[in-house]
Design goal:
alpha/beta, two-stranded parallel ribbon, three-stranded parallel sheet, 10% strand, 274 residues
Protein backbone atom coordinates (compact mmCIF):
# COMPACT_ATOMS: atom_id res chain seq x y z
CA UNK A 1 0.00 0.00 0.00
CA UNK A 2 3.06 2.27 -0.19
CA UNK A 3 3.70 2.45 3.55
CA UNK A 4 7.16 1.74 4.93
CA UNK A 5 6.59 -1.21 7.21
CA UNK A 6 8.47 -3.06 9.94
CA UNK A 7 7.25 -6.51 11.00
CA UNK A 8 8.36 -7.61 14.48
CA UNK A 9 7.92 -11.35 14.96
CA UNK A 10 7.00 -12.03 18.60
CA UNK A 11 6.01 -15.68 18.15
CA UNK A 12 8.60 -18.33 18.99
CA UNK A 13 7.12 -20.52 16.24
CA UNK A 14 8.58 -17.88 13.87
CA UNK A 15 6.10 -18.44 11.03
CA UNK A 16 6.33 -14.82 9.87
CA UNK A 17 10.13 -15.06 9.89
CA UNK A 18 10.05 -18.21 7.77
CA UNK A 19 7.46 -16.72 5.42
CA UNK A 20 9.93 -13.94 4.58
CA UNK A 21 12.66 -16.46 3.78
CA UNK A 22 14.69 -16.80 6.99
CA UNK A 23 15.74 -19.90 8.89
CA UNK A 24 15.14 -19.71 12.67
CA UNK A 25 16.04 -23.37 13.29
CA UNK A 26 19.50 -23.46 11.66
CA UNK A 27 22.90 -22.26 12.84
CA UNK A 28 25.52 -20.42 10.80
CA UNK A 29 27.58 -23.65 10.66
CA UNK A 30 24.62 -25.47 9.11
CA UNK A 31 23.97 -22.87 6.40
CA UNK A 32 26.18 -24.45 3.71
CA UNK A 33 24.71 -27.89 4.27
CA UNK A 34 21.22 -26.60 3.56
CA UNK A 35 22.39 -24.34 0.71
CA UNK A 36 21.28 -21.11 2.35
CA UNK A 37 23.29 -17.92 2.80
CA UNK A 38 24.51 -16.92 6.28
CA UNK A 39 22.24 -13.84 6.10
CA UNK A 40 19.23 -16.16 5.97
CA UNK A 41 20.09 -17.58 9.42
CA UNK A 42 18.41 -15.96 12.43
CA UNK A 43 21.07 -15.07 14.98
CA UNK A 44 19.45 -12.24 16.94
CA UNK A 45 15.78 -11.47 17.62
CA UNK A 46 13.61 -8.92 19.41
CA UNK A 47 14.64 -10.67 22.61
CA UNK A 48 18.24 -9.53 22.02
CA UNK A 49 17.08 -5.92 21.75
CA UNK A 50 14.57 -5.99 24.61
CA UNK A 51 16.88 -7.76 27.06
CA UNK A 52 19.38 -4.90 27.02
CA UNK A 53 16.52 -2.39 27.24
CA UNK A 54 14.99 -4.09 30.30
CA UNK A 55 18.31 -4.66 32.06
CA UNK A 56 19.33 -1.02 31.65
CA UNK A 57 16.07 0.35 33.02
CA UNK A 58 14.16 1.21 29.87
CA UNK A 59 11.15 2.31 31.92
CA UNK A 60 13.16 5.35 33.12
CA UNK A 61 12.13 8.51 31.24
CA UNK A 62 15.77 9.64 31.10
CA UNK A 63 16.79 6.32 29.56
CA UNK A 64 19.25 6.07 26.69
CA UNK A 65 20.57 2.66 25.67
CA UNK A 66 24.36 2.88 25.88
CA UNK A 67 25.48 -0.76 25.94
CA UNK A 68 23.27 -2.82 23.62
CA UNK A 69 24.05 -6.50 23.19
CA UNK A 70 23.92 -5.82 19.46
CA UNK A 71 22.88 -2.84 17.36
CA UNK A 72 19.30 -3.07 16.10
CA UNK A 73 20.68 -2.29 12.65
CA UNK A 74 22.29 -5.75 12.66
CA UNK A 75 19.06 -7.45 13.75
CA UNK A 76 16.66 -5.88 11.22
CA UNK A 77 16.36 -7.96 8.05
CA UNK A 78 15.46 -6.47 4.65
CA UNK A 79 14.28 -9.38 2.48
CA UNK A 80 13.00 -7.12 -0.31
CA UNK A 81 15.58 -4.39 -0.04
CA UNK A 82 15.44 -1.00 1.61
CA UNK A 83 11.99 -0.08 0.27
CA UNK A 84 10.28 -3.40 1.00
CA UNK A 85 8.97 -4.58 4.38
CA UNK A 86 11.65 -4.95 7.06
CA UNK A 87 11.71 -7.69 9.69
CA UNK A 88 12.92 -8.21 13.23
CA UNK A 89 12.92 -12.03 13.23
CA UNK A 90 12.06 -14.64 15.83
CA UNK A 91 13.34 -18.08 16.76
CA UNK A 92 12.53 -20.72 19.37
CA UNK A 93 14.55 -18.86 22.02
CA UNK A 94 12.19 -15.90 21.86
CA UNK A 95 10.19 -17.57 24.64
CA UNK A 96 12.95 -16.43 27.04
CA UNK A 97 11.67 -12.87 26.54
CA UNK A 98 8.58 -13.89 28.50
CA UNK A 99 10.75 -14.54 31.56
CA UNK A 100 12.73 -11.34 31.07
CA UNK A 101 9.52 -9.29 31.04
CA UNK A 102 8.03 -11.19 33.99
CA UNK A 103 11.17 -10.54 36.07
CA UNK A 104 11.35 -6.88 35.12
CA UNK A 105 10.45 -3.91 37.29
CA UNK A 106 7.78 -1.25 36.97
CA UNK A 107 4.93 -1.38 34.44
CA UNK A 108 5.98 -4.53 32.63
CA UNK A 109 3.07 -4.44 30.16
CA UNK A 110 4.42 -1.13 28.84
CA UNK A 111 7.93 -2.39 28.05
CA UNK A 112 7.41 -2.70 24.29
CA UNK A 113 5.52 0.60 24.13
CA UNK A 114 8.40 2.30 25.95
CA UNK A 115 10.97 0.58 23.72
CA UNK A 116 9.26 1.86 20.56
CA UNK A 117 9.00 5.34 22.12
CA UNK A 118 12.73 5.24 22.90
CA UNK A 119 13.50 4.10 19.35
CA UNK A 120 11.35 6.94 17.99
CA UNK A 121 13.29 9.40 20.14
CA UNK A 122 16.62 8.12 18.78
CA UNK A 123 17.67 6.37 21.99
CA UNK A 124 18.09 2.87 20.50
CA UNK A 125 21.29 2.39 18.45
CA UNK A 126 20.52 1.37 14.87
CA UNK A 127 16.73 1.64 15.20
CA UNK A 128 15.02 4.76 13.88
CA UNK A 129 11.39 3.82 14.57
CA UNK A 130 10.06 7.12 13.24
CA UNK A 131 11.27 6.17 9.75
CA UNK A 132 8.47 3.56 9.57
CA UNK A 133 4.86 4.37 8.75
CA UNK A 134 3.60 1.13 10.27
CA UNK A 135 5.03 -1.34 12.79
CA UNK A 136 3.28 -4.72 12.91
CA UNK A 137 3.69 -7.16 15.81
CA UNK A 138 3.04 -10.79 14.92
CA UNK A 139 2.00 -12.22 18.29
CA UNK A 140 1.69 -15.75 19.67
CA UNK A 141 -1.86 -17.13 19.55
CA UNK A 142 -2.29 -17.09 23.33
CA UNK A 143 -2.48 -14.20 25.78
CA UNK A 144 0.92 -13.89 27.46
CA UNK A 145 3.28 -11.21 28.76
CA UNK A 146 4.68 -10.84 25.24
CA UNK A 147 1.28 -10.40 23.60
CA UNK A 148 0.11 -8.10 26.41
CA UNK A 149 3.09 -5.80 25.87
CA UNK A 150 2.31 -5.72 22.15
CA UNK A 151 -1.35 -4.89 22.87
CA UNK A 152 -0.28 -2.00 25.10
CA UNK A 153 2.04 -0.69 22.36
CA UNK A 154 -0.51 -0.83 19.54
CA UNK A 155 -3.11 1.45 18.00
CA UNK A 156 -4.94 -1.47 16.34
CA UNK A 157 -5.30 -5.15 17.25
CA UNK A 158 -6.10 -7.44 14.31
CA UNK A 159 -7.65 -10.71 15.48
CA UNK A 160 -7.88 -13.34 12.72
CA UNK A 161 -10.68 -15.75 13.66
CA UNK A 162 -10.85 -19.14 11.94
CA UNK A 163 -14.43 -19.91 11.00
CA UNK A 164 -13.76 -23.64 11.02
CA UNK A 165 -13.04 -23.74 14.76
CA UNK A 166 -14.63 -22.55 17.97
CA UNK A 167 -12.69 -19.32 18.47
CA UNK A 168 -15.15 -17.00 20.20
CA UNK A 169 -13.92 -18.03 23.66
CA UNK A 170 -10.38 -16.98 22.75
CA UNK A 171 -11.70 -13.74 21.28
CA UNK A 172 -13.55 -12.98 24.52
CA UNK A 173 -10.33 -13.52 26.48
CA UNK A 174 -8.45 -11.19 24.14
CA UNK A 175 -11.10 -8.51 24.59
CA UNK A 176 -10.81 -8.91 28.35
CA UNK A 177 -7.04 -8.41 28.16
CA UNK A 178 -7.46 -5.27 26.03
CA UNK A 179 -9.99 -3.93 28.55
CA UNK A 180 -7.66 -4.64 31.49
CA UNK A 181 -4.70 -2.92 29.84
CA UNK A 182 -6.89 0.05 28.91
CA UNK A 183 -8.07 0.34 32.53
CA UNK A 184 -4.63 0.27 34.14
CA UNK A 185 -2.55 2.10 31.55
CA UNK A 186 -5.04 4.39 29.80
CA UNK A 187 -4.23 3.04 26.33
CA UNK A 188 -7.09 2.00 24.06
CA UNK A 189 -6.16 0.09 20.89
CA UNK A 190 -9.00 -0.55 18.45
CA UNK A 191 -9.90 -4.22 17.90
CA UNK A 192 -10.44 -5.37 14.31
CA UNK A 193 -11.82 -8.90 13.80
CA UNK A 194 -10.91 -10.64 10.54
CA UNK A 195 -12.88 -13.85 9.80
CA UNK A 196 -10.70 -16.39 7.95
CA UNK A 197 -11.04 -19.88 6.43
CA UNK A 198 -14.52 -19.07 5.18
CA UNK A 199 -16.25 -21.88 3.26
CA UNK A 200 -20.03 -21.46 2.83
CA UNK A 201 -20.65 -25.19 2.28
CA UNK A 202 -19.56 -26.08 5.84
CA UNK A 203 -22.50 -25.94 8.26
CA UNK A 204 -20.52 -25.04 11.38
CA UNK A 205 -19.22 -21.90 9.67
CA UNK A 206 -22.78 -20.58 9.65
CA UNK A 207 -22.92 -21.16 13.39
CA UNK A 208 -19.62 -19.36 13.87
CA UNK A 209 -20.89 -16.40 11.87
CA UNK A 210 -23.94 -16.26 14.13
CA UNK A 211 -21.71 -16.20 17.21
CA UNK A 212 -19.55 -13.45 15.71
CA UNK A 213 -22.64 -11.35 14.99
CA UNK A 214 -22.43 -10.01 18.55
CA UNK A 215 -19.18 -8.30 17.51
CA UNK A 216 -20.51 -6.93 14.21
CA UNK A 217 -19.20 -3.41 14.89
CA UNK A 218 -15.67 -4.81 15.09
CA UNK A 219 -15.82 -7.09 12.03
CA UNK A 220 -14.06 -6.29 8.76
CA UNK A 221 -16.37 -5.77 5.76
CA UNK A 222 -14.99 -8.88 4.04
CA UNK A 223 -13.73 -12.37 4.95
CA UNK A 224 -10.76 -14.49 3.90
CA UNK A 225 -11.92 -17.65 2.14
CA UNK A 226 -10.39 -21.08 2.69
CA UNK A 227 -7.94 -21.81 -0.12
CA UNK A 228 -5.32 -24.38 -1.09
CA UNK A 229 -3.18 -21.47 -2.28
CA UNK A 230 -2.08 -20.58 1.26
CA UNK A 231 -0.17 -23.79 2.13
CA UNK A 232 1.38 -23.78 -1.35
CA UNK A 233 2.60 -20.25 -0.78
CA UNK A 234 4.02 -21.19 2.63
CA UNK A 235 5.84 -24.20 1.18
CA UNK A 236 7.56 -21.99 -1.40
CA UNK A 237 8.42 -19.14 1.00
CA UNK A 238 6.82 -16.62 -1.38
CA UNK A 239 4.00 -14.32 -0.25
CA UNK A 240 0.83 -15.06 -2.16
CA UNK A 241 0.53 -11.41 -3.19
CA UNK A 242 3.75 -11.90 -5.19
CA UNK A 243 3.21 -15.51 -6.24
CA UNK A 244 -0.37 -15.08 -7.49
CA UNK A 245 -1.27 -11.38 -7.39
CA UNK A 246 -4.59 -11.88 -9.23
CA UNK A 247 -5.86 -14.85 -7.20
CA UNK A 248 -9.03 -14.63 -5.12
CA UNK A 249 -7.21 -14.98 -1.74
CA UNK A 250 -4.84 -12.16 -2.73
CA UNK A 251 -7.81 -10.01 -3.74
CA UNK A 252 -9.49 -10.62 -0.37
CA UNK A 253 -6.35 -9.75 1.57
CA UNK A 254 -5.86 -6.63 -0.54
CA UNK A 255 -9.39 -5.54 0.38
CA UNK A 256 -8.47 -6.07 4.03
CA UNK A 257 -5.25 -4.07 3.55
CA UNK A 258 -7.28 -1.22 2.04
CA UNK A 259 -9.66 -1.38 5.02
CA UNK A 260 -6.74 -1.08 7.46
CA UNK A 261 -5.10 1.64 5.35
CA UNK A 262 -8.27 3.73 5.68
CA UNK A 263 -8.31 3.18 9.45
CA UNK A 264 -4.64 4.13 9.79
CA UNK A 265 -5.17 7.26 7.70
CA UNK A 266 -8.20 8.32 9.77
CA UNK A 267 -6.31 7.62 13.00
CA UNK A 268 -3.28 9.65 11.83
CA UNK A 269 -5.44 12.58 10.75
CA UNK A 270 -7.26 12.49 14.10
CA UNK A 271 -3.95 12.67 16.00
CA UNK A 272 -2.77 15.53 13.79
CA UNK A 273 -5.91 17.56 14.57
CA UNK A 274 -5.31 17.09 18.31
Amino acid sequence: MGLKTLLIDLDSQANATQMLGYEPDLTIDEADGYEVTPDAIVVDTFMTLMTAFIQQGGHNTEFRLTSPLVSAENVIKKPYGESGPHLIPADTNLGDLESAIANGKGSRELYVREYIAAATAGKIPGFDAKSYDVIIFDCPPTVSFISSTAIAASDFIVAPIRLDAFAVKGLTRLMGEIKTIAHYYKVQPELVILPTHYAPQIARIGRMQTQLAQFRDLLTPGVISASEEFPKSLDQYIPLSLQKPTSNPTREYRMFAEHMFAKILAFTNSKARK
